[in-house]
Amino acid sequence: MRMSxxxxxxxxxxxxxxxxxxxxxKREGSxxxxxxxxxxxxxxxxxxxxxxxxxxxxIELHGIQVRKEGGICWMDIPSPCSALVDxxxxxxxxxxxxxxxxxxxxxxIDLVDSFTGEKVxxxxxxxxxxx
Length: 131
Known about the structure:
Layout: E1 26-28, E2 41-45, H1 55-61, E3 65-69, E4 72-78, E5 84-85, E6 88-89, H2 97-101, H3 106-116, E7 124-126
Antiparallel strand pairs: 1-7, 2-4, 3-4, 5-6
């Protein structure tokens, strides 16, 4: 998961505060109980050298997806969050802000769906009052 700028205070709300998402489209929807698709992998920014020679093939043989997005290189590593218990977040009320605001863009929704190989994320984004 890509990290956002964070404040460390816990909140008991599903959606981020408006000031956390100023200047972006409005997020609508909610997580499906038991889905946890976005909690089953980690996305890490990596050195472009991982895209040359045998490095990419070796990495992909280990189940790690390597991709470029906007000129930036990323690895999507299958690694379930240690807080997942029976498909549910065991620290939900105190989860990090990065978890509370994810997904924060359509690209992140597409990433989750791509990683799972199917349309699983039920969130969507609208600009202003568009639906």
